[in-house]
Design a protein that fits this description.
Layout (H helix, E strand, L loop, with lengths): L3 H31 L3 H36 L12 H33 L5 H32 L1
Length: 156
């Protein structure tokens, strides 16, 4: 348990990275939608994809590794154990849903969008909207997990 506070602090920092992306996502989507010049819009979309990738990797990997460490170090926790830590099991299930959406939806959609931007196809806006809808879903799930994390001591 010696390293538990360190892993907990890192877990909170990585959660913060994901929460910050939610704000960045809103602002950048607004700038992209307001942009009238095609080249600027495409550059902003590329930035959006880059930030989605960066924040997603840092947040996702950080949360996964520190979460595994926290569960392993705390004998009161377990994996998908609904018997006493429902909040944690629910968070883990939501994390799996985020994982599935990341690998099977957002990554292929982002690759498709990059190709459309590169080839300047007419489908860019529709594909960008698809990517942002998936990101919105992931961001909502992250917020829900964050709420479980900060309220479990008060409600459980």
């Amino acid at each position: 348990m010696k390293f538990y506070p360190t892993f907990l602090t890192l877990h909170i920092v990585f959660a913060g990275v994901w929460i910050i992306f939610f704000a960045v996502d809103i602002v950048l989507k607004s700038k992209i939608n307001d942009s009238n010049e095609k080249n600027m819009k495409y550059k902003l979309m590329e930035l959006y994809l880059h930030l989605t990738n960066l924040f997603g990797i840092v947040g996702f990997v950080g949360i996964a590794l520190t979460g595994i460490a926290l569960v392993s170090l705390n004998p009161g926790y377990g994996y998908f154990d609904m018997s006493h830590a429902h909040w944690l099991a629910t968070k883990q299930i939501i994390f799996i849903i985020i994982l599935v959406n990341t690998f099977f939806r957002i990554i292929p959609a982002a690759k498709k969008l990059r190709n459309y931007i590169k080839n300047e196809e007419d489908k860019v806006d529709a594909q960008f909207n698809s990517v942002t809808r998936i990101n919105l879903l992931i961001n909502i799930l992250v917020i829900i997990n964050f709420i479980f994390a900060i309220t479990h001591r008060f409600l459980g």
